Amino acid sequence: MFFTKLKSWLLAERPVTAAYTVPPPPSAALRIDELPPFTLHTADLMRFDPQVRIGVAARNGLLMAAEVEVAAADERVAAFVQRQWDRIWKSSAHVLTKAKLYGFLPCEVMYREGERPGMIEFDSLIDRHPRDARVLSRDARTVGFSLASKNDQRLKLLAPKALVCTYDAAFGGAYGVSLLERAYPPWYEKWMNGGAKKTLRLRMIKDAYLGDIFWYSPDRTLQLPSGKVVSWREIARDILEARLSGGAMTLPLMYDRDGNKLFDYTPPQDVGGATPIFQWKTDLDREIWKALEVPPEILEAGGVGSGYAGRSIPFTIALAAVDVEFSEIVRCVDRDILRPVTQLNFGAEPAYELKPRPLGEIYADERPSHR
């Protein structure tokens, strides 16, 4: 009797901790590094940074070679699931990889008629912006999402018509964590007021336009051939405008009775210190890559050894990070698409196993051996 109850308790479909919810972070509080809170709007802004785009593209490039093998006792089930996965990955990998930008990505799943009459198979994904979506859960399990509509009513979509793909979801959280949040501190320091980009821009403006000194006699005037009388201040202003536009300057050479110049010009002098500003921005760009789990060594050719040998360890680190991302994508696709559709087509609880192949093995097979 005791073992029967224990077995029922262990095999219960509803988790014992289903009522647990992840405590939300304090939205109004600053981060420990004094940054404003990270939001989905911040993620959208970060996507336009060239350094962020390169880092994300590098991760996606490594991820495109990922493979999944399906194992099942029923060969028909194995072939069906393998065919669905291959179609999903080949047609929609670029959609699924967006999940890491926001922490989660809601998609509507489109289906089509299969090879046999009455069979339903995957066709395509339609992604929606996470800003407008709310994840739907039941018994601590994600079952779909709701989406804002024009008439202020929320559209509810459930699996297998809905796919919620997450990134770095932990502690039972349904929304995941954006990868870009890890790169938020160096990105903010790069673009904030007084940050590297604006300081560098100010330095370039100073070098280009500021620092000229014009000496003129304030109590003297000049009569033009037309008879018009102008002050030396007006002449100095005209010369300054020519200086700012990059045009040539003509300066009068006039002396008083004591041999002193009535008009003089001192060109701007270099104040030095430009190199540290450029280095500051370079350091922040490298920090962004590191935060995106893309070691700079795999993107930069110089100073890290010859060929692959100098980048093998950083490359392994990047592959390990991408492996974790791919495993979560597979888990979400299996939960919301593959298992429901397989059960719908075969009429029974599907018995199969998805085996993501480690990317390290894939790239090791593709790399030519040197004897």
Describe this structure in words.
This protein is of the alpha+beta class and 371 residues long. The protein folds into two domains: 33-183 and 293-366, no CATH class; 212-266, no CATH class. The protein contains eleven helices and twelve strands. The chain has helices spanning 2-10, 40-46, 50-63, 75-96, 99-102, 184-191, 196-209, 232-244, 274-291, 312-346, 359-366; strands at residues 67-72, 104-113, 120-127, 133-138, 141-148, 154-158, 162-166, 213-216, 221-223, 229-231, 263-266, 352-357. The chain has a three-stranded antiparallel β-sheet. Strands 4-5-6 form a three-stranded antiparallel β-sheet, with no helix packed on it. α3 runs parallel beside α9 (274-291) and α4 (75-96) packs across α10 (312-346). The longest helix is centred in the C-terminal third of the chain and has 35 residues, at 312-346. The chain is elongated. The termini are far apart. The model has no long low-confidence stretch (mean pLDDT 83).
